[in-house]
Amino acid sequence: MAGPTLLTRIASVLLHPLTPEDVLGLLDPVRSSRQLRGVVTAVTRETAGTATIAFRPGPDWTAHDAGQWARIGVDVDGVRQWRSYSLSAPAGADPEITVSDIGVVSGTLVRGTKPGDVLFLDLPEGDFTLPEEPRPLLMLTAGSGLTPVMSMIRTLVPRRADADVVLIHSSRTPEDALFREELAELADQFPGLTVHHRYTATDGRLDLTTPADLEALCPDWRERAAYACGPAGLLDAAEALWCAHAGEDLRIERFRADLTAGVAGAGGRVTFEHSDVEADAPGDVPLLEVAEDAGVAAPSGCRMGICHACLTPLRSGQVTDLRTGEVHGDPGELIQTCVSAAAGPVSLAV
Predict the structure, then answer these.
(1) Is the bond leading into 17 cis (omega within 30 degrees of zero)?
(2) The CATH number of the domain where 313 resides is what?
(3) Which among 173, 316, 209 has a CA at the least distance from the CA of 256?
(4) What are phi and psi of 341, to 5 degrees?
């Protein structure tokens, strides 16, 4: 037991101020004790404005379940930004995300990512997953809402002879339909998958104010476990239809951003998500001090906004920069907790 410990100490002395892990990170970009990473292995153009990005994650990655999502970090103009993306690869495979060119971060990923690039990662999350017991399924999706469902289809249909899945997917035109060719091939190869495309530019939107449209495509829809993912209008309509005609056997995946504007000096309730701790924060006290007072082991360094050692992902809410009084914050933004105060309710990934 003494041998490795002695070698580690010698290596630490010789490499100072680097650590052995830092040197390993230079040799393999996904190795890091400080931040989970993944190296991009392939970029596939799906449509004119979307791309699937495959990556090999570091050793601390946890294999995802079909339908889950993960937060992905990318540096934009020198600032690390985080966004949540559904994982489109089947469970057990190396992860992939399918991204639409909407917004700064997604646009950077779609237009600028290439094999060999490094992404920053959080572990997979989410309970929009397949049922534990085999059941007939109905998948109702639109646009990029197909992404987590595609992970489910890729996981279930080729692996189970008893799979029974009906997919109803809406897109503007055939050219905008994600995974259209792959879905056609899967439906031809596996009788357990039925795919219905609705192209809203020519067919109009699926009408869910009554069961008629749904019954024409899937007569036994009430007997199936249903999943819906897509724009808010589709999900609200589906929720109302199921509530009125089919009970509660519908699972919905929504993606929401906290759009509530912060107020300088307001303070608020702070949630430290990884530590499962909540605390009230005055509007003029650094979040780092709030964390420490609450017993949360938050990263820190100079404590004056210079070294950036305290950078922490903002999950939701906004903060006040105590140096300038500016209120700012987007989900995924890295904030300096030593010079940031709560400008309303805040959630931090620490």
Answers:
(1) yes
(2) 3.10.20.30
(3) 316
(4) -120, 160
Any alpha helices (H) in 138-286, and if so which ranges? 146-156, 180-189, 200-203, 212-217, 232-245
What's the domain count of the chain?
3
- The answer to whether position 84 is within a domain reads yes
Q: Is the whole-model pTM more than 0.85?
A: no
Residue 304 belongs to domain spanning: 268-348
Report how far apart, in Å, the C-alpha atoms of 42 and of each of 39, 57, 151, 199 are. 9, 13, 17, 29
Strand order in the sheet with 96-100: 79-86, 69-76, 118-121, 37-47, 50-57, 96-100
C-alpha–C-alpha distance, residues 151 and 128, integer Å: 11
Question: How many Å apart are CA 341 and CA 319, to the nearest integer?
Answer: 5
| E strands in 101-213 | 118-121, 137-142, 165-171, 193-199
CA 77 – CA 26 distance, rounded (Å): 22
Interacting residues of 27 by C-beta distance below 8 A, sequence separation 6+: none
Task: Summarize pLDDT for 48-61 with one digit per residue, the tens.
Answer: 999 999 999 999 99
